[in-house]
User: Fold this.
Amino acid sequence: MEEIRTRLAPSPTGLLHVGNARAGIFNFLFAKKSGGKFILRIEDTDIERSKPEYEEDAKAAMRWLGLNWDEFYRQSDRKEIYSHHIKKLLENGSAYVSDVIRFKNPGRIVKFYDIIRGNIETDTKDLGDFVIAKDEKTPLYHLAAVIDDFEMKISHIIRGEDHISNTPRQILIQEALRCPTPKYAHLPLILGSDRSKLSKRHGAEALSEYKKLGYLPEAMFNFLALLGWHPEDDREIFTKEELIEQFSLERVQKGGAIFDKRKLDWISREYIKKLDGKDFIEKLKPFIPEEWRNKNLSGAARLFQDRISKLSDFTTEAKFIFELGDYDPALLIWKNASREDTKKRLEKAFELIFSSGDVVAYAKKEGMGEVLWPLRVSLSGLKNSPGPIEIMEVLGKEESLKRIRHAISKL
RNA sequence: GGCCCCAUCGUCUAAUGGUGAGGACAGCGCUCUUUCAAGGCGUAAAUCCGGGUUCGAUUCCCGGUGGGGCCGCCA
Assistant:
């Protein structure tokens, strides 16, 4: 049986975006499911627009996601190969030179079978004699892609729906070159909230932005795999291995899918919650100021592990643990309580904490909100935060008393 | 405009001739509760329209409508 070989072929003219990443994931899953090979090919035939830093970004993004490629190619390294095929096309009359090199279009109806969509038929007549190379050494996209897919023995081309209309052209070239036609599967597009193809104007489209925001790669992988594909059961959380096992092109959706950040956040939270405590702290480190590391990081981490959607949230949400911000004294007052009562209660709480007494028992007697609200605010300086007892455990007695004293002085 | 693709809750989707059209996210409500979050329970919410085919259409066919993609010496 023929080996399954798939590829992701980004052009290094911009940061790798989520559409590329999702296509990469599907190619990867499909290949790995059948023990095949997944190939990364950089399509940099456009030397004007291609930049090495974008190639680096693509590789970094792929590594981050865990999309390990088995083989790597770069089109600019393969000039002789293309040149050989261009000559062949010129010799057998399939192409001709007229300033540039054009493909002699036979203008037939081209049919192909798409694994996701079924039969697709196009009349190539109106495509005309399209340009396939600038000169004998400089192939353009369609030609280079066809030659590479052939040379690299790509068995399945799994790519975005935006390539459907390119396929007939490429099949024509394959025929002229006497190359077999690979199997095709055109994926639905990833859409922005207005249902048009996801792009810069929809906000974050580069994969690196999600890394920067502190989404876990496993969560991103999981989320993207579910965009346009669905397993046989109703599960939503999968490891990479489980996805490899479950994946099939037959279960890929035909319609475009909107990239829903809220669902991403939910999946991300699920992954963060499952993290081992120590691991969570390690992952947090790149997102926090240096000074936080030696303070109450592990306690703060415990407090926020199930309260954040992405690692960068910790930086803003847990900030008060490390430095108490300024706040309005009025915030200390619970509902209809008076300033004086609030002050008295905080003083009492201070004494109890100082002497290791039971604040909760006092709160139960005096009124939970009456005691715990001002206490919590004096510790966090915030309208919303974790509970005061939890915060004190993290802050320690000394710092807690200091903050309560400060609150009292504000009243 | 030409060619092509697509169409189930707001969103991601399940169900490929027979279901009360299922799940998840988001929403809302209740619960918990000092606030927030998390958790538990519950609730609302969809087959684009019109014709066929059939005993029976979300499902098959045709036509509309709507949305999207591609129309470069970019990929």
The mean pLDDT of chain A is 96. DSSP finds 18 helices and 13 strands in chain A. Chain A has three domains: 5-191, 200-317, 324-410. Residues 148 and 154 of chain A are 8 Å apart (CA to CA).
